[in-house]
Write a structure and sequence with these properties.
About 40% of the residues lie in helices and about 25% in strands. It is built from 5 helices and 5 strands; from the N terminus they run βαβαβαββαα. A 5-stranded antiparallel β-sheet has the order 1-5-4-3-2. This is DUF302 domain-containing protein. Pfam families: DUF302. InterPro entries: DUF302, TT1751-like_sf.
Length: about 130
């Protein structure tokens, strides 16, 4: 588990390619559904503030998320899953998400190791595809 509970990976692609690849991977998985997309850069621009490209995609799989919420409803604060794609000042594109082990500890989830492992593997595969 990471100290901050956040897993970050560096993309080998530009921002738009990384985000569009991530979105396509999620859309093409029949077990996943995109819930929302937020463009933080556009939101900042709407109030005349600058922000490097920063987008978040929220998606879920009720077959995996529901058992976690049945175990500890407060995990609903962290579900559905979210993956953040952002570009820093040096032009490096990062992909970040919550470490499922951290969420387990944060919410006191018990007896759900199989579900948490499935989520961890899925998030790793999805983000690896996005970063190229």
């Amino acid at each position: 588990m990471t100290k901050t509970g956040i897993i970050s990976k560096t993309s080998h692609q530009d921002f738009d390619t990384t985000y569009q690849t991530l979105k396509r991977v999620i859309e093409n998985n029949p077990n996943l559904k995109i819930i929302a997309e937020l463009n933080h850069q556009a939101n900042a621009s709407s109030v005349d503030l600058g922000l490097n490209p920063t987008r978040i995609i929220m998606f879920g799989n009720p077959n995996l998320g529901t058992p976690l919420m049945q175990n500890a409803q407060a995990i609903g604060l962290d579900l559905p899953q979210k993956i953040l794609v952002y570009q820093n000042d040096e032009g490096v594109v990062k992909v970040s998400y919550n470490d499922p082990s951290y969420l387990k500890d944060r919410h006191g989830i018990t007896n759900q190791e199989d579900v948490l492992n499935k989520i961890a593997v899925a998030l790793d595969k999805i983000t690896n595809a996005a970063i190229g």
